[in-house]
Backbone:
């Protein structure tokens, strides 16, 4: 096959990936804009998402089910996971290196679960309760800002990757 024929065979999938990457980046930027417009004003208390307000009443079984739901099928998680997986797959890394990167991705992605559990088991119930209550208060107060920043950063990165091409 000639070079022109080879590039014609692969340009279609590359274009589709680039367009999907741009679209996903734009979706994240729109979500950031919506979050920015609906954020609480100065001195206003941010309303808690319903799922966050219910956390204190969760049983271990319900916690596992909600973690699987939010971790696996929530659209923003799917977008981020698909983007990371595509980046790892497209890399020039060997299979062992790809596995190491994938394990690091899983570790970083799981840190929001690992950190509170580690604090609980390492610090004891009383001290952990104070620390975790402080984290909870901070997250409640800053949930909107955190989500806006994440959506902007990932949206811009995806747009740049999509515009830059494969």
Residues:
């Amino acid at each position: 096959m000639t070079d022109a024929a080879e590039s014609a065979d692969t340009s279609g999938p590359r274009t589709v990936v680039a367009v999907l990457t741009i679209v996903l980046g734009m979706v994240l930027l729109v979500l950031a804009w919506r979050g920015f417009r609906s954020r609480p004003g100065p001195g206003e208390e941010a309303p808690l998402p319903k799922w966050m307000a219910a956390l204190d009443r969760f049983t271990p079984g319900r916690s596992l089910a909600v973690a699987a739901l939010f971790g696996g099928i929530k659209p923003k998680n799917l977008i981020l996971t698909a983007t990371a997986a595509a980046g790892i797959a497209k890399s020039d890394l060997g299979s062992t290196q790809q596995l190491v990167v994938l394990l690091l991705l899983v570790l970083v992605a799981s840190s929001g679960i690992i950190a509170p559990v580690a604090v609980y088991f390492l610090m004891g119930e009383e001290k952990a309760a104070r620390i975790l209550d402080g984290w909870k208060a901070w997250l409640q107060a800053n949930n909107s800002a955190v989500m806006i920043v994440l959506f902007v950063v990932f949206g811009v990165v995806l747009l740049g990757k999509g515009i830059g091409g494969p």
